[in-house]
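Anyone up for a design puzzle?
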């Protein structure tokens, strides 16, 4: 287990006076829930806390306490002594927040990605854990902080989203026990799951129609692929964050072992990779300078949409064996 790393993390949290918590680009429920839950815990400890993210916090998470406290990189006051990258698998995933991390006197990483190279001074990384929120929960419990309803709601949100609402292969009994404790402390699992899975803006429905229309299958239906053009985002009004999870639509079809969804963005082609266990995709993501988990990984390619599709397709095809 990661007790030594966790102890070093706790010591730094206790020692710090002023902290900057950093979420990754294209923020998801786990990086947001982890940062907001940790923020509340540190505030309870009497610390000064700022939070930053290079990306828009989806409206669907507006029920999380502190969602409106996120700053953009240029709004951050430079008086913090400790920066904490939370659920950030590599430095580049901080986007414009990276220089803020690098300039901190103490740099801390809390993460669960298998590919994390441990780029901090204090690294609390539990590789293979299903969600970063699990570490935040364990950390809050170990620090003897009073677990409030607001904290529990943030943490259960990330635990839910990164486990596919307790369905993915990495989901473990500790996640289920922690979820039970979070519910005991006031988190409303029905409300959270409605906001996360049973309600979506019409623009995402429009994008879903496009995704199904564009979806194609290769290698006897073992690879499912979707290539989204910039104009698809413009015509639907869907933000990049709002397409989170759409890659799974291609994975959920019988016979599919690998799925990928490409999004054409100003700064390159964002690649979302998924596999059905025991197949893996983080090796493919690493090959292209990205990273992630065994069955959910990503990277960014600086090519045309068509070239990116060919590169990813060939890499996945090579894995079919
Ligand atoms: P996504 O397909 O964007 O949901 O990403 C799947 C997983 O891969 C997430 O846990 C991301 O943090 C990780 N990931 C995505 N893109 C990158 C990248 N360029 N570098 C490292 N990790 C990434
Ligand atoms: Mn994440
Ligand atoms: Mn995560």
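Challenge accepted. My sequence:
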């Amino acid at each position: 287990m990661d007790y030594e790393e966790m102890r070093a993390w706790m010591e730094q949290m206790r020692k710090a006076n002023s902290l900057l918590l950093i979420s990754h680009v294209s923020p998801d429920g786990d990086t947001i829930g982890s940062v907001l839950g940790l923020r509340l815990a540190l505030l309870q400890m009497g610390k000064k806390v700022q939070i930053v993210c290079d990306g828009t916090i989806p409206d669907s998470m507006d029920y999380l306490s502190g969602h409106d406290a996120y700053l953009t990189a240029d709004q951050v006051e430079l008086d913090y002594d400790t920066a904490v990258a939370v659920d950030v698998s590599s430095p580049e995933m901080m986007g414009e927040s990276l220089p803020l991390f690098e300039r901190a006197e103490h740099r801390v990483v809390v993460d669960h990605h298998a590919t994390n190279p441990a780029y901090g001074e204090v690294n609390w990384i539990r590789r293979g854990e299903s969600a970063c929120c699990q570490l935040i929960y364990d950390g809050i419990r170990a620090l003897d902080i009073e677990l409030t309803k607001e904290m529990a709601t943030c943490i259960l949100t990330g635990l839910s989203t990164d486990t596919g609402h307790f369905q993915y292969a990495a989901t473990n009994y500790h996640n289920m026990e922690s979820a039970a404790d979070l519910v005991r402390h006031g988190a409303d699992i029905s409300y959270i799951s409605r906001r996360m899975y049973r309600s979506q803006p019409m623009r995402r429905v429009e994008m879903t129609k496009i995704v199904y229309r564009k979806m194609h299958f290769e290698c006897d239906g073992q690879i499912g692929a979707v290539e989204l053009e910039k104009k698809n985002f413009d015509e639907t009004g869907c933000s990049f964050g709002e397409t989170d999870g759409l890659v799974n639509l291609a994975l959920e079809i019988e016979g599919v072992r690998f799925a990928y969804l490409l999004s054409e963005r100003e700064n390159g082609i964002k690649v979302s990779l998924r596999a059905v266990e025991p197949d893996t995709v983080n090796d493919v993501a690493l090959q292209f300078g990205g990273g992630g988990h065994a069955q959910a990984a990503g990277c960014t390619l600086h090519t045309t949409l068509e070239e990116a599709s060919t590169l990813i397709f060939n890499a996945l095809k090579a894995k079919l064996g």
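A detail worth pointing out: Residues 29-44 form the longest helix (16 residues).
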